[in-house]
Write a structure and sequence with these properties.
268 residues, mainly alpha, single chain
């Protein structure tokens, strides 16, 4: 079954197809908030990860010495902040959003929606909005906690950080939507998302952040969406210069993955 294409000559039909979207969005948001797993991993996990690393690993709250500019004098935990921000985007994009879409497909919800005035696209847009809000909230919580607990410094180049974060959101949601586009079952979507998520976390520097990341790992990671995101955010926060390569990499991933996800998306 494929989604119906609405003709531009029928504006009233198009408008009618989105009536009730506010109710749908509110209902889906409430259901999402009732899922403890989604709430924890989307909203809380990045902060728990950051606090755990900061307080559990010895030396993470000590200043870096002997690494050269721009690292010397920074608290070691600060090097994890860009990685955690990238993880705050990747976690809902790859672990929760694809599972929800696959669940709707598996239960036939998308097919049933196509017989109602609400277009099936409404459920997709609703969960994209829910995940955008989750990403914003998770990032804000992580930054506030890091500022209070570890005295995080302001980014050197706020505009670079904001642009990098925007491209991170676009590239990771595009990847998550591609996973969601074809997975026939929730279990399949979870498995595929997890297989992508953890290697990407590794390449983003979750275990070897900032100055201690090996050159070979950095070279490979900068061509992945999450690795490029972490490096671009790190450059904007701590270094001088503009991370052009990483920005282009994320833009290219978005330009390739998003149209592919739209083309391959199955409604039933």
């Amino acid at each position: 079954m494929t989604s119906a294409t609405l003709s531009p000559s029928l504006p009233s039909t198009r408008v009618a197809g989105w009536r009730g979207f506010g109710t749908l969005l509110t209902t889906e948001a409430r259901l999402w908030l009732r899922d403890p797993g989604s709430v924890f991993f989307s909203l809380v996990f990045p902060t728990v990860l950051l606090v755990g690393v900061g307080f559990a690993i010895p030396g993470m709250r000590e200043p870096i010495e002997g690494m050269g500019a721009p690292w010397d004098g920074l608290m070691a935990i600060a090097t994890y902040v860009p990685v955690v921000l990238a993880a705050a985007v990747a976690t809902p994009a790859l672990t929760t959003m694809p599972v929800y879409f696959a669940t709707f497909r598996e239960k036939g919800l998308l097919r049933r929606l196509s017989t109602t005035p609400m277009r099936p696209q409404g459920i997709v847009v609703a969960h994209l909005l829910i995940n955008l809000v989750a990403i914003a909230v998770a990032s804000a919580i992580a930054l506030v906690v890091c500022r209070l607990a570890f005295g995080l410094a302001e980014p050197r180049h706020l505009g670079t950080v904001l642009l990098a974060f925007l491209l991170t959101v676009l590239s990771m949601l595009s990847l998550g939507t591609l996973v969601a586009a074809r997975a026939p079952k929730a279990s399949t979507a979870s498995a595929i998302g997890t297989l992508i998520y953890f290697p990407m976390l590794f390449l983003s520097g979750m275990w070897t952040p900032g100055p201690i990341m090996p050159d070979a790992l950095r070279e490979v990671g900068q061509y992945t969406p999450l690795g490029a995101a972490s490096q671009a955010l790190t450059a904007g926060w701590f270094a001088d210069g503009f991370p052009m390569l990483q920005m282009v990499v994320m833009a290219v991933w978005t330009a390739v993955l998003l149209p592919l996800a739209i083309k391959l998306f199955r409604w039933s």
